[in-house]
Write a structure and sequence with these properties.
globular; transferase; about 35% strand; methyltransferase activity; Rossmann fold; SAM-dependent_MTases_sf; 7-stranded mixed sheet; alpha/beta; tRNA processing; 2 domains; 4-stranded antiparallel sheet
Length: about 250
């Protein structure tokens, strides 16, 4: 595992920097010591100070390089909470993208094998794992999981959790009983109802239990002298999550 990056905060600004890095700003040049740790204070050559903070998942969501629309924190939380992902779990994931879900599961203590079809996206995800400090527990593989299922069933079965964020998730769901341990969980994300319905139907046909789908919606609250109410801004819909369990 490589040393993770840190968040430098000061003057209303945030910078994601690694130990030993040097970065120029209009407030001066920041030189991050090799032995830096959370809680330290570093100064630019002009005397401006920045507090060093250890990265939390929310910071990573905001600062990791993106290759598309990442899964939102509320969706990530539902996946980890409903599937009970924790230390010692083996997770098979498809549709890595930016890798925010893989990062979160790795930080929760799971060992993650994640597949990304696009080689460029996979390279970005590997760098994000390194920055997040989970490259020792998250294996980013370039490839299509649907084409690798037979080999995984033969050589690396018995995953505790299967997480999917791909348009053809149903093709993998049909193989879930062969990939998961008894009692293992499936969690599949889709931004569209059609994909969700396909996953649900396939999960039932495959004999999975406890199949349920949730729409994730989040609304902010407004508080004023007149009163308190949900914000009138647009509904915070992100997508649909389907959960199921191998008997």
């Amino acid at each position: 595992m490589t040393d993770p990056a840190y968040l430098l905060v000061g003057d209303g600004r945030e910078y994601l920097l690694e130990p030993g890095a040097e970065f120029g700003t209009d407030l001066g040049v920041i030189e991050v010591p090799e032995d830096v740790s959370g809680g330290d204070v570093v100064e630019t050559h002009l005397g401006e100070t920045f507090e060093v903070r250890e990265l939390r998942l929310a910071d990573l969501f905001d600062h990791l390089d993106r290759t598309g629309a990442p899964m939102m924190p509320r969706d990530v939380g539902l996946v980890i909470g409903h599937a009970g992902i924790g230390r010692g779990d083996r997770v098979l994931d498809a549709g890595t993208g930016t890798g925010i879900l893989a990062v979160a599961m790795g930080r929760a203590g799971a060992e993650v094998t994640t597949y990304e079809r696009d080689p460029d996206f996979a390279d970005v995800a590997r760098e994000n794992m390194r920055i997040a400090g989970v490259d020792d527990v998250v294996d980013v593989r370039t490839g299509d999981l649907t084409a690798e299922v037979d080999a995984l069933v033969e050589s690396e079965p018995d995953f505790d959790v299967l997480t999917l964020d791909t348009g053809d998730a149903a093709d993998v769901v049909s193989r879930a009983p062969e990939l998961l341990v008894s009692g293992g969980f499936l969690a599949a994300y889709s931004p569209f109802v059609e994909g969700t319905r396909s996953v649900v139907e396939t999960a039932r046909e495959a004999g999975l239990e406890g199949v349920e789908s949730l729409e994730t919606i989040q609304r902010e609250m407004d508080f004023s002298e007149r009163g308190s109410r949900p914000s009138t801004a647009g509904v915070g819909h992100t997508g649909y999550l389907t959960f199921a369990r191998r008997p």
